[in-house]
From TrEMBL, chains A, B:
Main function: Part of the binding-protein-dependent transport system for molybdenum; probably responsible for the translocation of the substrate across the membrane.
UniProt family annotation: Belongs to the binding-protein-dependent transport system permease family. CysTW subfamily.
UniProt membrane topology term: Multi-pass membrane protein
Species of provenance: Nocardioides daeguensis
Pfam family, one: BPD_transp_1
Transmembrane segments: 12-32, 52-79, 91-113, 125-152, 181-199, 236-255
Protein's name according to its UniProt entry: Molybdenum transport system permease
From TrEMBL, chains C, D:
Lineage: Bacteria, Bacillati, Actinomycetota, Actinomycetes, Propionibacteriales
PROSITE patterns (UniProt xref): ABC_TRANSPORTER_1, ABC_TRANSPORTER_2, MOP
Keyword Transport: yes
Ranges for domain ABC transporter: 3-230
Entry keyword set: ATP-binding, Molybdenum, Nucleotide-binding, Transport
Name of the protein described by the UniProt record: ABC transporter ATP-binding protein
Any GO MF annotation of the entry: ATP binding
Amino acid sequence: MSRARHVGLPRWLFGPALLAGAFVVLPVASMTTRIALGDFWSLVTSRAARSALVLSLETSSASTALCLLLGVPLATVLARGEGRWLGPLRSLVLLPLVLPPVVGGIALLSTFGRQGLLGGELEALGIRIAFTSVAVVLAQTFVSLPFLVISLEGALRTAGERYDVVAASLGARPTTVLRRVTLPLVLPGLASGAVLAFARSLGEFGATITFAGSLEGTTRTLPLLIYNLRVTDADAAVAMSLVLVAVAVLVIGLVRPRGAL
Amino acid sequence: MSRARHVGLPRWLFGPALLAGAFVVLPVASMTTRIALGDFWSLVTSRAARSALVLSLETSSASTALCLLLGVPLATVLARGEGRWLGPLRSLVLLPLVLPPVVGGIALLSTFGRQGLLGGELEALGIRIAFTSVAVVLAQTFVSLPFLVISLEGALRTAGERYDVVAASLGARPTTVLRRVTLPLVLPGLASGAVLAFARSLGEFGATITFAGSLEGTTRTLPLLIYNLRVTDADAAVAMSLVLVAVAVLVIGLVRPRGAL
Amino acid sequence: MSAQVEVVLAERGVDVAFEVADGETVALLGPNGAGKSTTLSVLGGLLRPDAGRVVLDGEELTGPGRWVAPHARRTALLAQDPLLFPHLSVLENVAFGPRSRGSGRRDARATAEHWLAEVDAADLAERRPTQLSGGQAQRVAVARALAAEPRLLLLDEPMAALDVAVAPALRTLLRRVLAERTTVIVTHHVLDALLLADRVVVLDGGRVVEQGTTADVLSRPRSAFAARFAGLNLVAGTATPDGVRRPDGLVLHGTPGDPPPVAGAAAVAVFRPSAVAVHREPPGGSPRNALPVVVSELEPLGDLVRVRAGELAADVTVASVTELGLAPGASVTFVVKTTEVDVYARPFEHR
Amino acid sequence: MSAQVEVVLAERGVDVAFEVADGETVALLGPNGAGKSTTLSVLGGLLRPDAGRVVLDGEELTGPGRWVAPHARRTALLAQDPLLFPHLSVLENVAFGPRSRGSGRRDARATAEHWLAEVDAADLAERRPTQLSGGQAQRVAVARALAAEPRLLLLDEPMAALDVAVAPALRTLLRRVLAERTTVIVTHHVLDALLLADRVVVLDGGRVVEQGTTADVLSRPRSAFAARFAGLNLVAGTATPDGVRRPDGLVLHGTPGDPPPVAGAAAVAVFRPSAVAVHREPPGGSPRNALPVVVSELEPLGDLVRVRAGELAADVTVASVTELGLAPGASVTFVVKTTEVDVYARPFEHR
Amino acid sequence: SDDSSGEDGKDRERTLTVFAAASLTKTFEELERQFEDAHPDVDVKLSFGGSSDLAAQIAEGAEADVFASADTATMDTLVAAQLTVGEPAEFATNTLMIAVPPGNPAGIEQLADLTKKAVRLVLCQPEVPCGRAALQVADVAALELTPVSEEESVSGVLTKVENGEADAGLVYVTDVAAAGDDLEGVDFPEAADVVNHYPIVAVQDAEHAELARQWIDLVLGKGQQVLRKAGFGAPTS
Ligand SMILES: Nc1ncnc2c1ncn2[C@@H]1O[C@H](COP(=O)(O)OP(=O)(O)OP(=O)(O)O)[C@@H](O)[C@H]1O
Ligand SMILES: Nc1ncnc2c1ncn2[C@@H]1O[C@H](COP(=O)(O)OP(=O)(O)OP(=O)(O)O)[C@@H](O)[C@H]1O
Ligand SMILES: [Mg+2]
Ligand SMILES: [Mg+2]
């Protein structure tokens, strides 16, 4: 609605806001000036690039889905649940954020790897996770989960419980309340969270290379390809990074619901 | 208040929530089983470790402050401003999230580096950024800014403009509205955002090593030290990671205001 | 569905107990902050009291070691704030209750349409709650609560914000609907209490100060609030053989009502403002009650003028006002015949 | 501070224009959804109309190409929803306006304390808004609006949710305060309009259907809503030489008022419910008006009973009700003397 | 790793997985083409990384058929863990070179120039082979090198020098060759005293022991030409 309320923003706010925008955009822009456009297309359309791009999109989508599946319940419990154990749990969920991704990969290996905690059980079941595409998804989920959980929990807290209470008093059981009231009301937060998780998965490198390795078609996602290229051809690496950025901006632009994020 | 409203959560929710918690906590826990406690102390208290820890805390605090300084205005403009250019800007702010951090470092080099876009100007002013602690802060700010902006923007959107409007109608000028109503109301979101930014800064590796390099005392933060150690002594790296995790959980636990996050 | 209610909530200074008989409508009256909304919240299971119990038709819903979740109570609460779900259309809002109780999509829709029509909001069905005016939102909220078909209906000021055209219609609707339902309703309007409630429970400062049938309480109030609410004058004091002695010593003579007061015990004298005559000078002689007062306010009241003097009021004609030169600040005497004054024992103390 | 208001908002179907003289209090009346809150929002600068202008004391605040931000208008709006700042204490809420206008911390605090005391909420000063009851919150919101000391005060149903004890006190306060202020007030209660407003503007369906001094409009309403609001009967039709002809042909005889109706033009006949006698059979002979009606509702009204029949009402004694066997559904005749019926030309058409 | 492969790999029944040090990227990609031409039914999959990372992955169960390391120390750990088949064979050597930005703005001509105060030097961290080699060279020349940064890998050093951020770095000859016009190299005599040896070995559990052997043969035989062209030295043993 065009005739919305107009409180107006303080003028001085635009100064630092502009500076912030420039601080993010300028480096990326100035990096692009470095690469020749000629090589760009052949590079970007090479077999290795295409296979990495497809793999990246597939695994990032899968890990975003997994994040939603695990993260929505966790965020809800953290935001609405009661109990002294929630405080520590909330801090623990942040772990993958602070852990350098490579260390995260080591942690995943020590759980799901052949010599890991669950390695024996998984082996017995004939399941091998490390160095497969599944490992890529797990690595991405591990690093992305906190993003979804924290955004969503924040949104749930800000939205408050007023409408949940009304719904319950109208006879809606907790599952119905969650599905028809709580989650629809925090849709912007949920969408932000999912987009953050997807973006983080798309850019994930350290945990993936440690836990999943770097094998074309199976585990070599776009960031891993970029890393590979960097050794031999720095310009190519930058070009591929731009592809990654373009894909992310595109997917996010298409996916995100109106007003969300 | 203990007699708060009780809507109750669906029971089945605890299943996936628990799984999500386990998925994050288990790998970190199983990693700890790998290291011997004896070496742990001597490692953790070594000079290199201490200097890295101090540097990490200093730079992360500085970058969190910088994120707040730049990010709060940007998030406010994105959430409350009007204009067609806001849509693209919102997507662009996500760039550092998708960009593999190493590429982010390259981008920063191509802006603030000696031969970068602003390199000449900075050189003329006698300012050298690369290989200094300032570069570390800039690298951390670059990767952490989106976290703060997105959390805060989501919170601002969820909170809505109702109270801002009331404040304005009582005669509060935009700056007063921002300071006394808008920001206090989204304090939980702001705190979450700051904590996310701090955590991300603390774990930052790729952009730092690319843009700032790695020298003990000046630019070698904890993640860089961990990476250093990893090649020769994986156990030591794991031990240091645990220190990182402990510091993060501690700082976050102490800093975060009640109910926030 | 009969209900027994006991609520103790120390933090809000509330300690209330009353009963609701099957099919009965009870009006909760009382000043702002008396604990009305708090009591409804406890009944609806939205607030857990420190002590007390809620029993609905023999089933304990709240009690020591017992807690039935809100959705399992089959109560429906219309809160003071409409709180329509902002992401659902008006129709979906009203259909929410039926859907939650297991109705099919089509049935729920039909139910919702029915109730929307009843509150004269059928044409708003497709709107979003943000596109409603205050009164429209209130009506939709009423429809939503009614559509939930609860065992116990809890209405917190359902008629607030309604315009003069809609209010009577909605009152008529509620009267029809509530006749068959067990209901607790909170209101600040005497007409609602009179027309909708079988019984009233008067709260003040978190305590029940009076309860009884609506007619009884409103015609023979024993609490200051109920008298005020009914538009009656009330003088509290201790019983004398034929009247009530105010703390300042003045005695008001009257006829004993039922229950008759015991001399020396707490008692109240009640009389209608229209029975009060206003004199500039205290009249001599006859055995009437004369109260010296200072006029605080004049209010037009249809063809009459209500002269307020503190807690007391007198209804006089416009002509008398001019004649007597009445204005705020004027010292006058309120005179009332002994036969017009009823004296009752005061069963509840305002603790 | 005089104000000129013109508001066109197509999306909400609002097209309204009126003026407020310096120091005057104007009451906006009208059914739910008539556009009252919308008009206040435009005045306060919270909504930008499609067209129209707001001029306050010669200064254009809203207009083509002109827009003064809300905070710079020196208007204060008490909205329908109290919306107290949840992170500030009650005192800080009330002090917010003075602080924003540049008062020092101590001055603002004193002002806030003053207004809190005025609305009888001094003891709530240190509470958080979430710890208030509905009526308490409403009172604090009133105090907050008054404390802002605006040039133009905008009050949207300030008396909603108030108990019977507080409402008269707050009305007295407002009466005192508004006497010196330029104010636009929205209300659904006739008493508020009568006691607080110099003039009333009646909106219906987004249009001004009637305006004039309060006494004029409430005693001689020309719109159905104003009549309803004033508690008067109104019959609309076309003027005959000595009365009004209803669309169904029935003629109501009366005495022409000011402005006198022109035969054939739109006119209304207005009479008080107390002037209506109720008969079971149409009485023969005398030159009186007889309206056959069906009783829809009975409402107690103090010592009397209001008999409603659709849009019309008659006030009779309890004795007559029993005697005539009145009940909803009964067919009766409303009889009113010609001298009791006033006939006015209808200046505004309900478009 | 038989479940997925590039489009080209669809009609190839067998897969050979080769783990190789990052510095071998260009040469091994060339050898992949040669090998696949010779074996139309084989899809060669290459995984590059730091030698120690790759070794760790193999220890954790990554399915590799061949492992080519950039240093003998890493190879020794794998052998000690009994994850290899037969003795590792050395297939190339590498020596250090000073890398400078195009035009050599700091005017570096010999190793001793690196100790000048104005020169911003970057090295690999001592924990990785090129860093270790740099320390050894400094020892041999009796110089004390004070870098402004110790990078985690060769590519870190290259990035800084290519960007002109650093005035010089110590990397391998092959790295300078691979960088083309982005860098210039400065030889110094002390480099010959510190030689890095590249061993290759078949990995135990290898699904395709025969193919692994053929790959190793290619690297030790015809492949030497490709390696030499990229700047690698001949094996010393
Ligand atoms: N969330 C709360 N926390 C603490 N105290 C509260 C809370 N809500 C209300 N109170 C207090 O409890 C008392 C009872 O409040 P309640 O809302 O039940 O009053 P009410 O009778 O509904 O009044 P009203 O007519 O104004 O709606 C009041 O003194 C109020 O200030
Ligand atoms: N945000 C909105 N968007 C679109 N339409 C709206 C919006 N708010 C209100 N309306 C519509 O505009 C019209 C005028 O609404 P407004 O709120 O001004 O009514 P009101 O006179 O204040 O009624 P009430 O007495 O119920 O408060 C109504 O038809 C309403 O449904
Ligand atoms: Mg209440
Ligand atoms: Mg309104």
